Amino acid sequence: MTMEPTPLTVLRERLATDGLEASESLGLLVMELPATDLLATAKRLKSAHGFDILLDVTAVDWPGREPRFDVVYHFYSSREHLRVRVKTAVPEGDPTVDSLTPLYGAAHFMERECHDMFGIGFRDNPDLRPILLYEGFEGHPLRKDYAKDHAQPLVRYRQ
Amino acid sequence: MEHKPMGAMEYITTRKDELVGWARKFSIYPYPFVTACCAMEFMSVSSTLYDTDRFGAALPRFTPRQADLLMVVGTVTHKQAPILKKVYEQMCEPKWVMAFGVCATSGGFYQNYAALDGIDRIIPVDVYIPGCPPRPETVIDGIMQLQDKIARSPHPIVNERF
Amino acid sequence: MTMLPEDNTLQNPVRAAFTPDEVGGMVVNIGPSHPATHGTLQIIAALDGERVTRADVHCGYLHRGFEKECEDHTWNNLIPYVDRLNYCSGLLNDFAYCDAVETLMEVEITPRCRVLRTLLAEYSRIADHMTCIAASLMEIGAMTAFLYLMTIRDYIYEHLADVTGARVTYTYGRIGGLARDLPEGWLARLEEILVQYDDFIGRVHALMDRNRIFIDRTRDVGVLTTEEALNWGFTGPMLRSTGVPRDLRRDTPYLAYEDLDFEVPVGIKGDNYDRYYVRMREMDESVYMIRQLVEMLEPGPINVDDRRCTLPEKHLVYSEIESLINHFKLIMEGPQVPAGDVYRAHEAANGELGFYLVSTGGGNPYRMHVRAPSFIHMGGLHRLLEGYQLADIVATFGSVNMIGGECDR
Fold first, then answer.
1. Interval B137-158: pLDDT, tens
2. Contact state of B82 with A155 under an 8 Å Cβ cutoff
3. Do A154 and B121 touch (CB under 8 A)?
4. CA dist C222 to C17, C146, C386, Å?
5. Rounded to 5 degrees, what are φ and ψ at A141?
6. What is the DSSP string of C265-283?
7. Would the CB atoms of A83 and C246 count as touching at under 8 Å?
């Protein structure tokens, strides 16, 4: 019995002809690539494959692993209604990736958030001021080594 | 003995402090410091079905300088704390503070780096309303408790010359 | 505790992107505690006369450490936290989160649960859109419409409280099902409320749709093109108001949406009026869907029969040791979710609400991330404000429906 190829499989084969290796996982495609390829891949995804919405930028902290952080991107193709996850690993010593702000305006706030929470640097993002946190906040709360209840108040407590 | 019917408003027995307290408790001007989920219930309680107008507390003043009740509705985070403190300091005396919901009361279940564990860490609070978010009845109960407190609190107008 | 200044001066938590000297004009600060920023948002606007030339949007005043908090709790215990993301429609968040965990566990929910979740999700969407429209109308002065919408919304809240036990924050979804089934007579009351809904919404239409003041405040204000909306990652009513029928319920059907007949309302210009009207029409579609779903509702179990996630029946917990241990393990250790990561998105009231979960096979999530539509919309908000009047900030911001809990998490 031959199965009708799903849209996801079709997309995967199309990406493979473009030199982009991806695997299927729970309803979307996953690509793992080195940080140096990120910007070029995102460009290909946007211009050649119709991934016109950058859904999400976040990171995952794996202390003890080298490289320590995974930076995770989700893209959406509003024409084909398919999603792609792009994962890239960055080391603790230099947690920096290229910014996607030249391609997607939405990347700006998401990268600021990721910078706040994990201390991931985004090269060429012009504005990495704190967004969810505040000026003077030290550390990156979503790193696993940041204690959950370590508060940094801005106002002196009443006695 | 001839009975003379008494007019309705011929005289009222009261004490002057009670009279002043009664008048004051129905003229609360709240400043809603609305941050989070409790805002949904704040909207409900101030609109038709529950209607805080019945307690003289419906007309929000959108500047703290004209308000006498600071309603802190929702979670206050460390980032928000300086703003809350500034708003409180801008209010004129006499002023009251209502902690609306558990987050304002104690931080609720947000016990972490971001949330302030209760606004009474930075400003004094007169009435706490429990609930996450509190039902409108609870809020009304809180307003009535605050009214009692206002009615009982001394006012400089009541002195030996008045 | 960090070093605080000795003299108790209050520190400014944010830094503006520009100074008055740089922009050569007046700089006005709006928020974060301002009646028109229902929620906590700060907009620093540079003005040329009354016109906004640059807007610097600051959010994060309601950052409650949701994602960090989640890493500290079991999968089940997260449901109350998830509720408080978009607190206008807690059920939508519940179901999206449960769906993500179920995808990771490869659990398939029962047919009744599937229909019931869809029904309650649409019901919640009505409440959410009502809140948004009511608040934005009130901010531009339409108090009567606000009171009408609040009245019918309160009926919905009380009605949802009958089934979930709470008016705003429901904690009703469960991994693999729902907390409880519908109480008796709930559907009859639902029909009553839907009839009243028509009445109240008709009044709001009559008050607003052709109201000269309303049109002047909203038509051609805060205009956004489709290309720009996509660039800024907009989804939901914000994107649909620009004229493209993109709706996850239609495009990537989940729950029972593929069996439903509904339209995806779109706007013409992508301005404030369109955003108002798209929301009004979406509520009508939700009512139409709810009526279909009531027909589809069949009796049956609401929780899957899967010991990995569903709590055993209470009488079994008291009578047999396996169920007792099962109950204990589920409560104390949490459901054991297989290792892996998943991204699952639902069409929430504001747009694509995505949950990115990373599990290492334990009872707690290793990492939990929410793709919150409000936050993404804040990223492009300055495009809607720049070039319009200072007073238009209020009308535009109201129509965006920023929800603090979801935006700042």
1. 898 899 889 888 888 887 777 7
2. yes
3. no
4. 22, 22, 8
5. -65, -25
6. ---SS-SHHHHHHHHHHHH
7. no
Q: How many residues does chain B have?
A: 162
- Cα C135–chain centre separation: 15
Instruction: Give dist(CA C100, CA C354) in Å, integer.
Output: 9
- For A126-152, how does the pLDDT look when each residue is reduced to its tens digit (9 = 90+)? 888 888 888 888 888 888 888 888 888
Residue A36 vs residues A58, C76, C195, C350: alpha-carbon distances, Å: 18, 39, 59, 35
Residues 6 or more apart whose CB falls under 8 angstroms from that of A105 comprise C228, C231, C232, C233, C379, C380
φ, ψ of residue C221 to 5 degrees: the values are -115, 135
Decide: C34 and C61 in contact? Cβ < 8 Å: no
User: Å from B56 to nearest chain C CA?
Assistant: 18
* pLDDT at position C1: 47
Q: Is the Cβ pair C8, A156 closer than 8 Å?
A: yes
Dihedral angle of Cα B64, C60, B129, C183, to the nearest 10 degrees: 130
What's the full length of chain A, in residues?
A: 159
Query: For residue range C62-88, what is the model confidence (pLDDT) as tens digits?
Result: 888 888 888 888 888 889 999 888 888
Helices (H) and strands (E) in chain B, counts: 5, 4
Contact (CB, 8 A) for C239 and C229 = yes
Res. C178: pLDDT tops 80: yes
Contacting C residues, span 251-290, partner chain A, CB-CB under 8 Å: 251-252
Q: Is C30 on the interface with B (CB under 8 A)?
A: no
User: Which amino acid makes up residue A25?
Assistant: S
Q: How near does any CA of chain B get to the CA of A154, in Å? A: 6
Hey, are the CB atoms on B116 and A153 less than 8 Å from each other?
A: yes
Residue of B nearest to C165 (CA): B135
| Residue pair B36/C405 in contact by the 8 Å Cβ criterion | yes
pLDDT digits (tens, 9 = 90+) for A89-130: 888 888 888 888 888 888 888 888 888 888 888 888 888 888
From B113's Cα to the closest Cα of chain A, the distance in A is 4
Inter-chain residue contact A154 with C13, CB threshold 8 Å: yes
CA distance B42 to B54: 15
A59: Cα within 13 Å, side-chain hemisphere? 33
Sign of the CA dihedral running A61, A65, A68, A69 = negative
From the list C235, C253, C254, the residue with the least C-alpha distance to C376 is: C235
Q: Which residue has the tokens 């099902």?
A: C177
Tell me which chain A residues have a C-beta less than 8 angstroms from the C-beta of B111: 149
Output the average pLDDT for chain C.
87
Q: Please state, for a pLDDT cut of 70, what percent of chain C lies above it.
A: 97
B124 in A contact zone (CB under 8 Å): yes
Query: Which tokens belong to C108?
Result: 């398939």
Residue C120 burial by Cβ neighbours in a 10 Å radius (0-12, 13-18, 19+): buried
Residues in CB range of C51: below 8 A, 6 or more apart: C387, C388, C389, C390
Backbone dihedral region for residue C36 (phi beyond 0: left; psi -120 to 50: alpha; all else: beta) = alpha
At residue A2, does pLDDT exceed 80?
A: no
Q: Rounded CA gap, B34 and B17, in Å?
A: 33
Is C81 an interface residue toward A (CB < 8 Å)?
no
- Find out whether B104 and B134 touch, Cβ atoms under 8 Å: no
Residue to substitute from C2, C4, C30, C40, interface B, most B β-carbons within 10 A: C40
Q: What is the 3-state secondary structure (H, E, C) of A71-86?
A: EEEEEEECCCCEEEEE
